[in-house]
Amino acid sequence: MSDIKLGIVGLGRLGRTHAMNIANHIPGATLTAACSIAEEELEFARVELGVEETYLTYEEMVDSPNVDAVCIVSPSGFHTEQIRLAIEKGLHVFSEKPLGLEIEDIEKTVEIINAHPEQVFQIGFMRRFDESYQYAKEMVDNGELGELTLIRCYGIDPSSGLESFVKFAGASNSGGLFADMSIHDIDLVRWFSGKEVKRVWALGKNAAYPELDEVNELETGAAMMQLEDKTIAMLVAGRNAAHGYHVETELIGTKGMLRIAAIPEKNLVSVFNEHGVVRPTSQHFPERFKEAFINEMKEFITCINEKRQPGVSAFDGLQGTKVATALQKSIDTNEIVDIPSLESIRS
Predict the structure, then answer these.
(1) What NCBIfam families does the record tag this protein with (predicted)?
(2) How many Å apart are CA 15 and CA 74, to the nearest integer?
(3) N or C: less crowded end of the chain, CB within 10 Å?
């Protein structure tokens, strides 16, 4: 069986992570093409990864006869258009989150994806492929926690990146704190519970950089969510963790509870020195979820070869953005927001 030939669009920090994984760690896959508007990124692809075809436009790349599938890691606002074009060209598609920024646009894209079941589509909710989260999911599915009553999620970026985000926020649209960051936690809530979010209430505060108020962005946000079976979910999202990259999840049920990464440990090392006893922590998402990124791309290639769809779908991307949009509306209006059911379009 010949390798699946992939083209990637977007070679920023996350794009480089995917590109290096495809080139070095994914059996049955070859990184054939890369697209970026930045020549230095294309040079990186050619020199460091041995990519044979590089393009300044996405349209040229998806027209290449040497591309079987695409990996979309471009800015969020381009995702839906690029997904649709690739699907229409007969290509398999892996797209980073979010699926898009506008619900109507996402719904149109989901319809096109569902109309081509012979082509594999996978969205990049990599936490589902993390060993610890998969272990916890198995416990929940086996009933070891009983009926879930509360899910609590923390997702906080390191403060080392906050200043650069403030500059970015003044010139670009991230989609908002919840769409940009909590989308992973929203997906975890739906994944663990098997239920949809019915009602949300969100709050936010800008303390280190009050100027974020002027561009309608948040440094720190929190939300309370009620699921359709009245299970409670709590989200904390932020961009100012002094100790590093902090992702933590707690599940409470009628028979017990568990916590995933209560301390965001980098490894099993304890350092004993003048600072006391210190446990090193992960400093960024490529470090914390290194294996999860590899595992999700392996699943994408396996699905193509086995002619099946992955467990994480375009519908999951739609629902995640639907909830994130409701959370932003709650911030803007200072009101509780109800979310209409989308069961009619579940794939």
Answers:
(1) myo_inos_iolG (TIGR04380)
(2) 8
(3) N
